[in-house]
C-alpha cells in the first residue's frame, strides 16, 4: 500500500503556543493524551484529532482535516512546509515558505519521474521523496526525531460552518497569497432577454412549418 501521510512542519513550538494553533485551525483543542512519535509517524490520526510534536523550537502538526487550509493561514514570518505523500499513487506535494517566499513543488514517480515547481529542496529521481525529502526536513528542523519522543494529542469537535462556493486559489512566490477570483451571476434582465429570444425563434419556426 505504501505510506500515505500529510502534515505541517514549522519553525515554531506550537505546544507552547496552543492558543495560536487553535486560532489558525478555527477549533477549540482539548489535550487528550501523550503518545510516542512512532505511533503517528507512518499513519494519520483519527478524525477529530490533532497531533503536535514539538522539539527544539519547531513542530510537526498532523490533522486529517486542516493541512491544506493552513497554507493560507500560517504566518509568513515563520519557515514552514506543508507536505502530502501518497505512495499508492506515487504523488508528492511540498508547499514551503522559506524566508518569506512561498512555493509549491509537485513530484510524480509513475514510471518516469516528473517534477513541477522551483524544486526548493533539490530532490531528484534518485531520491526517495518521503525519506530524503519529508523525513529529512523533519529531522533537520527538529534537530532529530526519535520514535520514543513524546507527542501531544488534542481532540476537537468541528462546528458546522456555512459552505462557500468553490473558488480557485493558488500559492505564488514571494510570500503572496492571491485573493480568490469572484464570479458574478447573470441578472434577471439578462435572463428575460434570453427567454424572449428563444420564444421568438420558436414562433418563426412554427410559422415556416405552417406555410410549407
Number of helices: 3
| Mean residue pLDDT | 79
Strand content: 25-35%
Determine the N-to-C terminus distance. 69 Å
Based on CA atoms alone, the radius of gyration comes out at: 24 Å
Largest beta-sheet characterization:
9 strands, antiparallel
Shape: globular
Helix content: 10-25%
β-strand number: 9
Helix-strand string: EHEEEEEEEHEH
Identify low-pLDDT runs: 160-169, 177-196
Q: What structural class do the secondary elements suggest?
A: alpha+beta
Strand numbers in spatial order across the main sheet? 2-9-3-4-1-5-6-7-8
The total number of structural domains is 1
Walk me through this protein's architecture.
By secondary structure, the chain is of the alpha+beta class. It has one domain (4-155). The chain is built from three helices and nine strands. It has a nine-stranded antiparallel beta sheet with strand order 2-9-3-4-1-5-6-7-8, covered by helices on one side. Mean pLDDT is 79; it is low at 160-169 and 177-196.
